Amino acid sequence: MRHPRTRHPRIAACRRQGRKNPASAMLLTGILLIAFAVLTAPVRAGEKIIKSYGISTFGDLKYGPDFKHFDYVNPAAPKGGEFSTWAFGTFDSLTPYILKGNAADLSTIFFDSLMTGDADEPDAMYGLVASSIEYPESRQWVIFNIRPEARFSDGSPVRAEDVVFSFHALFDKGRPSFKVTLSDIKKVEALTPLRVKFTFKKGANTRELPMTVAGLPIFSKAYYATRDFAQSTLEPPLGSGPYMLEKVVPGKTIIYKRRADYWAKDLPVNVGRYNFDKIRIEYYTDYTAAFEGFKGGSYNYREEYLSKLWGTAYNFPAIQKGWVKKEQIKDGNPSGTQGFWFNLRRAKFKDPRVRQALGMAFNFEWSNKALFYGIYDRTDSFWENSYLQAQGMPTKAELAILEPLRKDLPKSVFTKPAFTPLVSKPTKLDRRVLRRAGRLLDQAGWKVVNGVRQNAKGDKLEVEILNDSPSFERIMNPYIDNLKRLGVVASLRNVDSAQEVEREKTFDFDIVVRRYTMSLTPGIELRGMFSSRTANLQGSNNIAGVANPAIDSLIDTIEKADSRKKLNVAVKALDRALRAMHIWVPQWYNPYHNIAYLDVFSRPKKPAPFAVGEIDFWWYDKAKEARLKAAGAL
Fold it and tell me: From CA 606, how far away is CA 608, in angstroms rounded?
């Protein structure tokens, strides 16, 4: 089955680098001011100042200062050709960082950031717009030294004042969640034209903040002097990244073209990357129609999320002739948190027994057998398919964190193994499980009256599932049938993707399907998903509306962990607590990427553990294209 609308909570946006074109007068002034800034920067007594080409959460970097390129790229990859794929729904904006509008896929690609991550480390960043980073051991502040050659696509230089402007634009006019993510930043200042400093609030989580600000997109202050950052628009934005807009057909097609004059194309972090001359995205409002478009050659790459199609439909002539390749690639990331999410802001979902009972009505085992062709496993953890998943009873290390929070956590956190969903019989109706669910609803005060669950006030237990994909109905309808057997007045509300986006932003739903991509080094982004501060913040990633002081405390512990060992323990404790709260109905996962593509691409022999890299470091192979043309495939 397809993955529903995915949310990527980390702020780190696009990642790129640069060349040289110094202005001597500016540099001389900068040198004098740099010396002054270093002498006057507040430093704790005896604290060491670190200056580096990169940074990681716990200080470990795979690549040395003189690295030539990332290990997983082909430094000699040719440039050229077109990569095309599809997206679900529609779009009406090229401004992905604000609440208004529905931004086009990949529209963050216009913008560079101070530093960039890689695909074979979980938490490292290396210089992009910034050539180096400076910070004290406490990480109470951070200074980035900007490359003098960094340029926006109109040729204007990227300077410290643009970084300062970008921070304030995001904080003041960006999605409301930016205020939460960036709330621990006390001050941002341009020390010189090429030197920008972020100072963090006392007591803030400084372990991760340097990387959070290093990954922020950089906008042109001059460009937005005559434009309102908060307004949605289809005007091509001015950025400093590797691609710019070539063509847009609102709601239907967007084409990005590679910038031959991209200032950072030869930096080590960019060697072997951004190889396609064009990236084209075609939009479809129907999943099956999108698949037919792929079969007909409307686009050349597809990751398949619909199990029925993967199991039965990939036998069309182009596959049989070898013109289209079908593969599975191992996914080294946590498999994500896909499920039906309850809106805890609504009174009917306040009792966890109600949520648990509603979750029991979803028969994964039957769905997997009858609908998914047995290709999925059941998800039970927020960090499924990773070493961060809580298992069994809590360990002593976990209990040390959890015990002070006991009054705000379910008793089962301490008395039972980490929650896993009941295993149903692979039959459409498992009466045993439904009887147990019914008893939970009885205990919660929702009794059956004339075949319908009602509380003492006479209110009916009504539940509506929001859906924007016709292909998902075959999973939702059997779930709804089981809910009705429990006496729940359950229904499916089909809307288009634009309506679903707006209703999610304003939390106008009972239950919605969503998938989050989780990090192996989680931190500040957890505020956006599970913190009380974002529970009622429109547009936030806290889709369920989690507002629990114990969860807030666990997130704080994760943010402040000063070793990976401590981090892992705290994440397992959070995973255990969230699972016990029944804030969602976990669905399923596949530890592989199911992909199909026209055989005109090549990729490095050494895979990257944390990315497929189809847009990032694959390339268009002219020899393969010639073979397909000779065979009549093109």
Answer: 7
| Domains 8-75+86-226 and 243-256+272-278+288-331+591-630 fall in the same CATH topology | yes
Q: Alpha-carbon distance 103 to 117, whole Å?
A: 23
d(CA 208, CA 524): 7
Instruction: Assess contact for 220 and 156: CB atoms under 8 A.
Output: yes
| Pairing mode of beta strands 301-303, 253-258 | unpaired
Chain segment 220-278, per-residue pLDDT in tens: 999 999 999 999 999 999 999 999 999 999 999 999 999 999 999 999 999 999 999 99
Domain ranges across the chain: 8-75+86-226, 243-256+272-278+288-331+591-630, 339-589
- What residues contact 119, with CB distance under 8 A and at least 6 apart? 70, 72, 608, 609, 610, 611, 613, 616, 617
Q: What is the dihedral of CA 365, 371, 375, 377, to 10 degrees?
A: -30
Q: What one-letter code names the amino acid at 134?
A: E
What's domain 243-256+272-278+288-331+591-630's superfamily in CATH?
A: Periplasmic binding protein-like II (3.40.190.10)
CA dist., res. 331 & res. 480, Å (int):
32
Per DSSP, the chain holds a count of helices (H) and strands (E) of 18, 27
- Domain spanning 8-75+86-226: CATH superfamily: Periplasmic binding protein-like II (3.40.190.10)
Helices 549-560 and 564-581 cross at an angle (nearest 10°) of 160
* Cβ pair 270, 240 in contact under 8 A: no
CA distance 212 to 525: 9
Helix, strand, or coil (residue 50): strand
Placement of tokens 């990729």 in the chain: 603
Q: Alpha-carbon Rg of the chain, whole angstroms?
A: 25
Is pTM, for the whole model, over 0.90?
no
User: For residue 567, what are the CA distances in angstroms to 224, 398, 458?
Assistant: 40, 11, 47
Number of alpha carbons in the 13 Å side-chain half-sphere of residue 535: 16
* Residue of 382, 387, 339, 333 lying closest to 574 (CA atoms): 382
Q: Which of 88, 115, 116 is nearest to 102 (CA)?
A: 88
Give the span between the Cα atoms of 250 and 203, in whole angstroms.
46
- The H-assigned helical ranges of 361-411 are 364-370, 396-402
User: What is the mean pLDDT of the segment spanning 568-572?
Assistant: 98
d(CA 593, CA 329): 5
pLDDT digit string (tens) for 432-473? 999 999 999 999 999 999 999 999 999 999 999 999 988 889
Q: Contact at 8 Å (CB) between 146 and 158?
A: yes
Q: For residue 282, what pLDDT is reported?
A: 98
CA 515 to chain centre: 9
β 124-127/115-117 pair status: antiparallel
Domain 339-589 belongs in CATH node 3.10.105.10: yes
Helix (H, G, I), strand (E, B) or coil at 510: coil
